[in-house]
Write a structure and sequence with these properties.
D-Maltodextrin-Binding Protein, domain 2; 241 residues; 3 domains; 7 helices; alpha/beta; 35% helix
Length: 241
């Protein structure tokens, strides 16, 4: 427990760090007059959702340049040169702000030919299950949710990227657990159908993450507002399908 003197010291030190943080924000904002923003997002999100919309951002904000890091590696805002990150955020870090972008729901997908071999989730024991190596827990969770916990597939096939896994599924190599609705934006998914009627509630979401102090930077604020508006329009389009 803090002593009375400790509490006084904590308040004084806290104010000092707030001043340092505010000064650092101003320096980043005015560094050589730059308006470059650095965004970190997963490879799949960048290629299937963000890139198709970049032309609109460039038209609306010609004063802002973007540097995009498409990686599945978690971002450390205290160390990495990143202004905004888009991730499946499961935990919260002090000093960061989170804005939910999109809820995701797992859905098994395969070619129409493979679907004809399935009548229930138990039939997956006779099939190849396609995994994304960064989400190896997805299939076990889905199977447990539909009453098939512990089911072992005939074969497992894993890829280090969702794009490669989808391509394999589109070529009939097995059944993939896609993340609805964003999976449907990938071209290989146009050759796929829902493998089973079972529906499982989503357990993950895309979040926009940034430093609280960076809200004072106009370019960051503009990019946040644009991303939220674009995602709102995307969700309206999905509901209208």
């Amino acid at each position: 427990m803090l002593t009375r003197d400790g509490r006084h010291l904590l308040r004084a030190v806290g104010r000092s760090f707030d001043l340092i943080r505010a000064a650092a924000v101003r320096l980043r904002a005015n560094d050589s007059g730059t308006t470059t923003l650095r965004i970190s997002a997963t490879q799949f999100f960048v290629s299937k959702w963000l890139i198709p919309r970049l032309e609109a951002f460039e038209r609306d904000h010609p004063e802002i340049d973007l540097e995009i890091d498409s990686t599945n590696r978690l971002v450390d805002f205290s160390r990495d040169a990143v202004d905004l990150a888009i991730r499946n955020a499961r935990g919260r870090v002090s000093g960061l702000e989170y804005r939910k972008l999109l809820d995701l729901r797992p859905v098994p997908l395969c070619t129409p030919k493979l679907r004809d071999q399935l009548t229930s989730a138990a039939d997956l024991a006779k099939q190849t299950l396609i995994h994304v190596s960064t989400r190896r827990e997805s299939w076990p969770r889905w199977l447990a949710a539909v009453g098939c916990g512990g089911l072992r597939a005939k074969r497992d096939l894993a890829f280090d990227s969702a794009a490669s896994a989808l391509e394999a599924a589109a070529r009939g190599r097995g059944i993939i657990l896609g993340m609805d609705p964003i999976t449907w934006d990938a071209e290989p998914a146009h050759k796929l159908v829902r493998a089973l009627p079972d529906r499982v509630d989503g357990t993950s979401s895309y979040y926009l993450v940034f430093r609280k102090a960076d809200l004072a930077r106009p370019p960051v604020r503009a990019c946040i507002d644009w991303l939220l508006a674009e995602m709102a329009a995307y969700k309206r389009k999905i509901r209208a399908r």
